[in-house]
Amino acid sequence: MKQYSKLAEIRISKGLIQKDVAQAAGVTRAFYTQVENGTRVPSLKAAKAMADILGVSLDVFFDALGVTKWNSNVMMKKGLTPRSLISNSSKEVMT
């Protein structure tokens, strides 16, 4: 029996294939596959798009990638929060 990553399990439970998620998120299937396998970490903008497509929160999405509370605490000490990063990335897209 094949062992899937947490992210793959979420995708499969929604009846989606990698190509569907990748296209809807605006990334290549190869990139999404790397994210799902844990060899790449998406930008916050791409992560938000993937999480939305998969119907999960960013917390669940990052948990499935193995982002730990320690990672979050380091970001918070730098004054970064997921919400501020989304706001900043949205501003960059608009300019």
TrEMBL record:
All copies of domain HTH cro/C1-type, residue ranges:
7-61
PANTHER family for the chain: DNA-BIDING PHAGE PROTEIN (PTHR46558:SF4), TRACRIPTIONAL REGULATORY PROTEIN-RELATED-RELATED (PTHR46558)
Q: Which organism is it from?
A: Thermoanaerobacterium thermosaccharolyticum
**Under which name does UniProt file this protein?**
Xre family transcriptional regulator
One matching Pfam family is HTH_3
Q: Which GO terms describe its molecular function?
A: DNA binding
InterPro entries referenced in this protein's UniProt entry, alphabetically: Cro/C1-type_HTH (IPR001387), Lambda_DNA-bd_dom_sf (IPR010982)
Determine if DNA-binding is one of this entry's keywords.
Answer: yes
**Is GTP-binding among the key words of this record?**
no
